[in-house]
Amino acid sequence: MRKNNARWILSIAMLLVSLTTTAQKKFCMTYEDFMDNKWEELDSIHIKTHSKSHQMWWGGSDFAFTTGNKSIDKLLKKEAFAIAIDNTLYVNCRDLRFEGTPFGNGYVKARRIGKHSLLIVNKIIGKKIAQSEFVSAYMFGAIGGAISASNHMKRQVCYLISHGSNEKGVIDLRLINDRLMEKMLKKDTDLCNKYYSEEKDNKRMLASHIIPILEQAGLFDQKHDSQE
Predict the structure, then answer these.
(1) CA separation (Å) from 134 to 53, 125, 139, 141?
(2) Cβ contacts of 202 within 8 Å, gap of 6 or more
(3) d(Cα 13, Cα 135) in Å, to the nearest integer?
């Protein structure tokens, strides 16, 4: 129902702006629309970043967008699933969850991987992380809690989006860990050895370690790759 209302609002908004036919600036409302290549075109769009981390590929939820039209801006912020600008894809983090934990607002860069998935890179979250931040804040006060949160922000890991939202409007993600990496690499001995060459668990799961191996495995969709 929420998505249908959003489409109706979009139709009204489109009457208020003049859109040109271009495939370089567009957005889609749902994961299913993305998979079916159903996009709405935009005349113009402006990117705002929240931090300097967007200078790296693994940048977190650093991106926000404006078009100059309040109705469309509201849709992009609260309803849209993804925005594509040229060959770069951004996914809305608003409805994304891992172990029930949200990422917050903002968009994150994404890359198409396999036939049905998108890979995003963001801070490590989840039940264990939330508990550790609570304990740190409790034991060491606000400063200790801030330091703990900062450390987790630096621990950028990989997540997969492989389906749309559930009945609650939430999209549950999978964390790329040892088990999932072995499955993705299909027991390629050389690449598995390269992956496990990092002996520390907390470093092995970092995006900076995983992404080059996935690239070497040729798993990213080159036709729809969004890396800049």
Answers:
(1) 25, 13, 9, 10
(2) 155
(3) 47
Nearest to 42 by CA among 27, 28, 63: 27
Q: Which two tokens stand for residue 133?
A: 């931040």
The yes-or-no verdict on residue 96 having pLDDT over 80 is yes
SS3 (DSSP) at 118: strand
Residues 15, 96: Cα–Cα separation, whole Å: 31
Helices 207-216 and 178-185: crossing angle in degrees, nearest 10, is 10
Helix (H) or strand (E) holding 128: helix 127-154
What pTM, to 2 d.p., does this model score?
A: 0.77
Tell me the CA distances in angstroms from 187 to 119, 157, 180, one per residue in order.
Answer: 20, 21, 11
Q: How far apart are CA 78 and CA 29, in angstroms?
A: 10
What residue has token string 């977190």? 60
* Residue 200 CB partners (closer than 8 Å, separation 6+): none
Tokens encoding 85: 């600008």
Q: Could you read off the pLDDT of 106-158 as tens digits, one per residue?
A: 999 999 999 899 999 998 887 654 444 433 333 444 444 444 444 444 579 99
